[in-house]
Specification:
Length: about 190
């Protein structure tokens, strides 16, 4: 079975699109997903399945509409893709440390997209970068480094220029999801050896 991470856009934000995580886990288990776990309230879901990403994306999207009457963009990554995102951060430790010291809140984020943006749209978006708001696009992942704050940043407000829906997670969340992946892998190894 493949370990996947599904990231929902706009769940439990500012009192909108409320979903209780226990109910979400139960709902997704009805789809036949295995070892369903969630992290915090913003729609970060770890699970196992033999199905392909495209099929899972549609099934999860449709199930959330059916059970919660919420239409949310569903972005999926395999465990390997998530760990690659973490390993391949384009920003040096020095840059992140410097940004962290001056930023109000988390400084490093990744916008995760269901499909890679075109070169034209990527170039349009990247025109909004500056010395205080940096970005690197790597396929379906957009790394964002803020020296001030993500709130009201021109860069984040222009993610729509990519013409692909995105859901943004801070680095702390991605690191936690990566460690949850490792825990599940270890648990599977123990179970396989029994």
């Amino acid at each position: 079975m493949t370990i996947y991470i599904a990231l929902l856009r706009g769940i439990n934000v500012g009192g909108h699109n409320k979903i209780i995580m226990a109910e979400l886990r139960s709902s997704l288990e009805q789809l036949g997903l295995k070892n369903v776990k969630t992290y915090i309230q913003s729609g970060n879901i770890l699970f196992e399945s033999n199905e392909h990403e495209d099929i899972l994306q549609k099934k999860i999207h449709d199930k959330i509409i059916e059970d919660f009457a919420i239409s949310s963009v569903v972005v999926i990554r395999t465990a390997e893709e998530l760990q690659q995102i973490v390993r391949q951060s384009p920003f040096s430790e020095e840059e992140v440390s410097e940004a962290s010291n001056s930023s109000k809140g988390e400084c490093l984020h990744v916008a995760l997209l269901p499909a890679a943006p075109t070169k034209v749209d990527s170039d349009k978006f990247l025109t909004f970068t500056n010395e205080r708001e940096l970005s690197v696009i790597n396929g379906r992942d957009v790394y964002l480094l803020f020296y001030d704050s993500i709130r009201n940043s021109k860069l984040i407000n222009n993610l729509k220029k990519l013409e692909v829906p995105a859901t943004v997670r801070n680095w702390k969340t991605l690191m936690k999801l990566s460690s949850m992946v490792e825990e599940l892998k270890q648990s599977n190894k123990v179970n396989d050896s029994k």
